[in-house]
Protein: Collectin-10 Collectin-1
Amino acid sequence: MGLLVLCVFAAVLNYISASSEVCTNTLLPGAKGDQGEIGEEGAQGKLGKDGPPGLPGVTGETGLKGAVGHTGKMGPSGDKGDKGDTGLDGPSGLKGKPGTTCDCGRYRKVVGQLDVNVSKLRNAVKFVKNVILGLKETEERYYLLVKDPKRFREASMNCKLRGGSLAMPKTSNTNRLMADYVSQAGLTRVYIGVQAQSKDAGGTSSYVYADSSPLQGFASWSPDDDLHIHTNSTCVELLSTGTWGHVECEATMFFICEFPKSRRRGGGRGTPGLAAS
Structure:
């Protein structure tokens, strides 16, 4: 009996040993193959989201100063200034010659009234010229500041329609009178009757007055006004400081007209025409 059990146990061990040999007969991975060829480039992918902004860059250098811009439109007139103090009384005149006895009778009162009327008329004319019209005058000419902004050519034509021309400061005294006129009106610049006529071989412009006469003996150019910079600015403006400057002829600004004083019968003087506007 014991022998039989031993045989059965031995048979079982042989069976188990045979079964384990069968289970170990499996496929194992082979050796690593050669590297394959590189494939074609794929299609471009979709655009990704924007990344965060980078840090601010270093501040650049300051650029060059730009060219001078066009002259702006004339600003509104300022408020009227306070009335000046009354001047000192002038010295008394010389004693007149004694009058002759006249038997005019009733005409004496008429003559006296005529003198009063003439004095009133002179005062009225002076008021019209100096207050209402704002005229300035010298021994030979009247000057009128026209507060109607126009281009240079239009301003010149406007003065001609009034019977005059654009004002021409041919002396330092006349130039000072016109500059004070501009300053008292609360303005800074006006057109005057000076304009470039032609250029010489060196590119320098020659200037003439409105009556085509050349500048002789007097000019008041601003030291800051460079002729070589303003090659296209062929017209001239008078500043309230008394200096001249170059300006584009298409700029609109106020201007001064001048009118010669004409002698009339009896020694009277004419006044400039004011119909044009």
Observations:
- The longest strand covers residues 189-199.
